[in-house]
Design a protein that fits this description.
This protein has 117 residues and is mostly beta strands. It is 0% helix and 57% strand. It has no helices and 11 strands. The radius of gyration is 13 Å and the shape is globular. The chain starts with a strand and ends with a strand.
């Protein structure tokens, strides 16, 4: 089992920045690919970004490309999401997830990000 805990959410104004962190514990392994997802009220959960186990490969949703940066520190079992130039439409609960054999099998409890206009 891998336990994931997100932190860093909050209430900010449009144009501000936030940095989310996800710390893994339990049966941790640096070879998990990690992803960030978000779910806004009344909408389905959507992909935001992911990073492979080594940290050398990242992928972003078009809606956040150029504004968000995903990174990881395998020595600390943490994955981060730096979010810049935040927009009201970025308001959502943000979740991190760990991929096992290509599927996201472990999820955190989520952290709320609210961007006011």
């Amino acid at each position: 089992q891998v336990h994931l805990v997100e932190s860093g959410g909050g209430l900010v104004q449009a144009g501000d920045s936030l940095r989310l962190s996800c710390r893994a514990s339990g049966r941790t392994s640096s070879r998990y690919d990690m992803g960030w997802f978000r779910q806004a009220p009344g909408k389905e959960r959507e992909f935001v970004a992911n990073i492979n186990w080594s940290g050398f490969s990242t992928y972003y949703a078009d809606s956040v490309k150029g504004r968000f940066t995903v990174s990881r520190d395998n020595t600390k079992n943490t994955v981060s999401l730096q979010m810049n130039s935040l927009k009201p439409e970025d308001t959502a609960v943000y979740y991190c997830a760990a991929a096992v054999s290509g599927a996201y099998g472990y999820w955190g409890q989520g952290t709320q990000v609210t961007v006011s206009s």
